[in-house]
Amino acid sequence: MKVTKVLLKQKIILRTIFGVCAGIILGSILKSFTLQPWPARSIMYLKFPGELFMRLVNCLILPLVISTIVSATCNLNKSGKIGLMVLCYYTMTTILGITLSVILVQTIRPGEILKNENVLSQHSTRYSMTIDTILDLFRNLIPENLMNACLNQYQTVLEIPENNSVPLAEWQINHRNAPGTNVLGLVFFSIMLGLAIGKIDEKGEHLKIFFYSLSEAMMKIMSWAIMIVPVSVLFLISAKILEVDDFGSILKRLGVYMLTVFSGLIIQGFILLPFVYFICVRQSPYKIISKLGPAFATAFGTSSSTATVPMTIACLESIGIPSKITKFIVPIGATINMDGIALYENIGAIFIIQLHGLQYSLLRIITIRSSSRRCFINYCNRLVCRSYKNHH
Questions:
Q1: Which one-letter DSSP state was computed for residue 39?
Q2: Whole-angstrom Cα distance, residue 327 to residue 305?
Q3: What is the Cα–Cα distance from 380 to 292, expressed in whole angstroms?
Q4: At 346, phi and psi to the nearest 5?
Q5: What's the distance, CA 292 to chain centroid?
Q6: For residue range 169-198, what is the model confidence (pLDDT) as tens digits?
Q7: Considering the entire predicted model, what is its pTM?
Q8: What is the pLDDT of residues 254-294, one digit of tens each?
Q9: Rounded CA gap, 343 and 362, in Å?
Q10: Which class for 303: exposed (0-12), middle (13-18), buried (19 or more C-beta within 10 A)?
Q11: Do 356 and 384 meet the contact criterion of CB atoms below 8 Å apart?
Q12: Cis link prior to 322 (omega < 30° from 0)?
């Protein structure tokens, strides 16, 4: 009875669940009773309504993140304690996720189970070193051009020499602008701007009002966009089902790997993080989790952390958390505190190592854990190529 009352109050949950179920049913019917495979153009037509929604969400990311962080930081410049606590929390939860990923993948060892399966591409087109990725992290943190940061990320690239015997550290260094918003740099600039506005007191009041109004306007638009989530996920999910040729083959080849990833996500989200909350607050974390249903539903339906920002802020404010805190913490967390990605990518890296029968020490595993997403991809590609050469 209580569950029913809660669901009735959270209509977005019911609508999103209905949209997901309808998408699965529609995709299954089309896959079973129509000629397969569907042409790419037909799938594009089916996915078009959902694609428009995702374009709308991506369009709102920059003004939403910048305005909310600036407006919140203006009021938090005198409270460095909150910023320090946020930094410690994000660092701790990320470390927990990474550690959990290593424990799970070393315990289950999905790569050894699939060692004889040819499930990965054996091609590599771009190289970099771990130190390059770390330096790029700081370069992206402080962008030299804000307009360029809205469109591209700085990326160091090592050019392959004619002489293959040259050590990787001696390859010619170059760089490129990788497509994709440099969210890290924009967040850093927004924090600095908010702190500066807060420091100039009365002279910054007009800017405070501007960014606060822009933040409220962006959140209102995002709340409108969230209302069409059920319709968008219906078309997105049904199109995805049609794009997959054989679910059984995927589960057979990567089922253990997927089980490892999902196990890590469930343990991180429903055991470790609630335990951290209980240790810090000495209250039941599940009472808070039960009130975050709309945010979970939005995340599930859109697969976008940024799309959940306005709904998460609304849920937290309904609990009683001050607006000036939520508007500072939530946008930063949605763009930086990626526990799930950290967990998934580390499992993937060690999975590839196991898949090719390579033995790595704890030190080299820690090196993988310290790498970013791009380093993870490049590093694993090099492992695949080296293993391929060694075996052939």
A1: P
A2: 15
A3: 36
A4: -70, -40
A5: 18
A6: 778 888 888 888 888 888 889 988 988 998
A7: 0.70
A8: 788 888 888 998 999 889 999 998 998 888 888 888 778 77
A9: 17
A10: exposed
A11: yes
A12: no
